[in-house]
Amino acid sequence: MTAPAIPDAPRKRLLASIHDVSPRFEAQVDALAERLSGHLGTGKFAMLVIPDHWRSAPLAGNAAFQARLRQWADMGIEMFLHGWCHKDETPAEQGLAGFKGKHMTAGEGEFLNLPHAEALARMAQGKALVEDILGRPVTGFIAPAWLYGPGAHQAMADLGFALAEDHMKVWRPQSGEVLAKGPVITWASRSKARIRSSLWFSALARQALPLTRTVRVAVHPGDTTVPALLRSIDATLARFAKSHEPARYASLTGPTSLF
């Protein structure tokens, strides 16, 4: 009698992304894309696109940058909508939302305190704009600074985004199903203290996270201004590219659980 087949173990995935993709940061995004491609291969990462960074760098009307976005997408790079303006225009003064807004981001938690109607309007407008530029659907929605309020959660579900992400997980907005767990490895360049802490955390992650099914790495334009951060990014990508297969976020929607 033939022994029953043993299912293949879930493969380990490395998901990488470039945040704050905007005409304002075109040179930095180019440099980061080249860096990630060197470690992961062409198109094996995502870009998070801002329609109008701080309301002074619009995609609309910028034919040259729109062409760049299409070129990147044609290379296989996944495109996420990343807010509308990346600026918190409704900051909370008290409570948990106030703490997050003040200490987890430099005034960029755009969707943390937005009411549902405003969150829905910004998401719908951004989704339509980016998808019209690309000629294809976005992969999902990721809020600036990974911060979401109740209005944002409901708006994502209403609009049918396939994927969303925060600091600790990736999930389906409509059902709430969690597809991957674990902290995202990222870096901060805003101050010497944040640089030190992100270097410490990334070094710890290289030791503590190799057994994690899905490892997520996120880089930002500001990282290109600090050589120590770039060295840390290189070390982190090189480490996990050995144990985890560079993959697309959309691969999480398959039948195999990864955490």
From TrEMBL:
InterPro entries membership: DUF2334, Glyco_hydro/deAcase_b/a-brl
Protein name: Deacetylase
Organism: Novosphingobium capsulatum
